[in-house]
Fold this protein.
Amino acid sequence: MNPFIDLVERVKALVFRAQTDRELDEELRDHIAREMEARERAGHTGARRDALIALGGLRHVKEETREAQGVRPFEELIADVRYSLRALRRNYGFTLAVIAVLGIGIGAGTAVFTVVDRVLLAGLPYPDPDRLVRVYQKYSGDNLGTISVVDIQAIANQQRAFAAFGAAQPGASTIAGAGTPERAPVGRATSGFFKALGVRAVRGRLLEPGDDVLGAPPTVVVSQRFAERSLGGEAEAVGKSITLDGVSHVVVGVLEAGRNDLAGIRAVAWRAMQLTTPNRRGPFGFRGYGRFKDDVTLTAASKDLAGISERIFPVWKAGFQDSSARLTPVPLRDSIIGSSDRQVGLFAGAVALVLLLAIANVATLMLVRTSAREHELSVRTALGAGRIRIVRLIVSECLALTVLAGSMGLGLAAVCLKIVALVAPNLPRLSEVALHGSGVVFAVTVSVVAGVLVSLAPVSSVLAGSGSGTAGLVGSPSRAGAGRRANAIRGALVVSEFALALPLLMGAGLLFNSFLQLQRVNPGFDPAGAYALSVSLPSIRYADNAKAQDFWRRAEQHVREVVGVTSAGLTDGLPPDLFGNVNNFDLLDKPVPAGASQPLAPWPQVSPGYFATMGIRLLDGRMFTDADSANGPPVVIVSQAWAAKYYPRERAVGRQLYNGGCNTCPPTTVIGVVADVKYSGLAGENDAVYAPLAQGGGNSLNLVVRSATGQAATLRALRATIAALDPELAPVDIALADRIDVALGDPRRWTVVVGTFAIAGVVLAALGIFGLMSYVVRQRRREMGVRVALGASPASLIQLVVVRGMRYAAIGTAIGLIATLFESRWLGSLLFQVGATDPLTLVLSIVVLLAIAALASWLPGLRAARIKPLEALSAD
């Protein structure tokens, strides 16, 4: 018979057992009736009794029939599962403990798998995502940067590798005409950007080539979420006008649902990017995106873009001297994920260790439970139960526990994912994460695998003592050997728990140490009492730079008159990681070699009052004055770190440089040196160059004040002041102290996440050794009673238990040391001023782990010390 058909028939017989029994009963009654009739015709008395005897009895025949149908093993399995569930229900304390420990592990593991699956493994949500790339400017030294207008136009006109190419730029705009004016993320894009990604509009259309032309009517495409929230729904949105930074834009289309960010750029709306004719290679700051043609590879595209770089370099070399720079394609997935694979890998590793610890802990508990059931299992063996039946009973109990834990874990996973979305470090694609089918499959698979792993230890223990039919009974010759085997397995499990706990504790210690180092970093300014408003002036109403400068001058003057404000200033970039400008430069007396890339530095534009407001000290030279205007010679002030980097043991004041790659422009003079301020993050470099706002300007600036009246009152007064000057503006509040807190956000989150898992791991390891030593004390109660009767002191019994527990912990810790070596490569990029193998952190981690092991062993030792000899001896 076909094996599949045979299996189907067996399942059918099992499922429809009642019907099968009825059919068997009818058939047997028919046979009995015929046999009785035959015997009566032959003149036999007691015909019915003889017929039943002849047929072997109704029950026996039915059982033989069911055995022939292959149903008996299934029925026995179901009986074992039912028995296991009844037994677990009777011992509900043990059951709840196991389900809780393992359920938390499975839940956390499922949540992390879902994050890993969506962030790292799942393809990008675009058609043929493997054909998508982001185009970078690759400088000498393998540094990747954004591209310029020159690059965008050259690629669009000369490339042969892409079926579609476009550019985009993240940003924020003041949106009016859709309810209350608000500041929201709004991107700029060319029409080719949407075509390259392959996204669609559910209403209207996307941007088209005609929208990119300079002077074309301003158009915008909005997300479905924005259309539903602010424009009356997607059906009503198309054709409406919204104002972006004072410019009226017609909504021409609504993106399909879920497109709240594109290519890693989050935006509620996308306006057409109308590029002006450039007069130099820079400025940079744009992102290029392309979709390969069907027959084009990454290597071929790289060659194509390198050729474009070589052709345009001579045309713009006066302002861009890095001859080795190349336009370079990088797979879009790699571009979006960046270094997040290491961060997510660390996260996943921590959860995997906790899950393994939970499995080892539960395996230890199950082994102890099995040892406590020696008599029951021995009686089953004596009554004829074979090895397979005993093993099946244990495995079914373990699987029942882990499946119940998995069910609990699924619910916890859904909760964990909501928590991850709120408190997780800043990971790409996190908005796409949700529990889905693959997460459910993972939870089920882990539950089954955990059940098998948990059952290995008790099954091995049972098999080791099942050589005779009375294995496990008192006096059985195999009992001592089985006990030694079980103790060895229990010890190995506890050792593994400590081996897994040390890397967790070490990782948490390193991250905590790194976080403390980062907290001690001097940001270079005093955040207490410093507040800012981020203001963006509409380009239509403030197209003239003189008009914008006049607004900023009046705004700065008016806010100085606000009650409680002691000083005010303007800047286009805020520390510690909110700078708006990065510029290249070349020193006149120390020019870079021909064809080499020029150095870069944060380049904030500031008003003269900015330094006093931020509390930045002058170390040499002078500060900016009103005389440093657009009509004056170009000047800059540099940070102490910049001066030490480029003019070590020399005076930087009076030195000159070309900035922005313009070697034909008048040189810029360094007029002062100020104390260092962090503009590239708290862990970044300190070099910075300040330019006077009057010699550059801009429509998006931060108005910074120092006030003694508190955050809420100060910001309320600042908003009122700006509203009096221009009621259509929508400024954004910023507290400089909050900027520090935001800069510490990701390190803090990583420390909390890994620290939480480390605490869970250490607790599980402590519970494991506590449970093991408690069992040892119970198992050796008679022996310890004899020791006490012979004069052993309580202290010696405590020492006996603690030494044995510490032996397990020491072996596990030694094995864990090896695991920490592999851990170091994952932690390196997340640490600040702390080595991944920091000896102090390692020693402290070992000391803490061993101290907890000593405490967990000491408690059972106390119980051993209280054993009364008479009670122990009479117990047997």
Q: What stands out?
A: The longest strand covers residues 247-255. Confidence is low (pLDDT under 50) at residues 466-481.
